[in-house]
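Narrative summary of target 7.
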Amino acid sequence: MTKSKTKIEKQTKRKANPELVKTIRLLKKQKAWFEIASILSGSRRNKTSINLDRIKEDVIVAGKVLSQGEIEKHKVVAFSFSEKAKEKIIKAGGKALTILEELKLNPEMKGLKILK
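Modeled conformation, tokenized:
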């Protein structure tokens, strides 16, 4: 389901996390990142928590990356990471970036797949 910018803004006003609010507002301005803004603005139930063993390519996770499993060298972009997951990604030679960091580096979201 595609949300409008107005709906995303209304949902964003209910968020208590200032970093999440900032992220959503920046993402909704970029056409390529709009789907991520839509997911993050919704309820917590819609955000995903992904374990490392599900990551098989360069991905974006609209939620948190958890440490269960192993990972090969990949770029992982997420709203947040568990400490152990971030360590494992870096140890494997990959990159663990927040959504805001990746938005600045890659405004077109090239080479990344949204993992739901």
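The domain at 5-115 is CATH 3.100.10.10 (Ribosomal Protein L15; Chain: K; domain 2).
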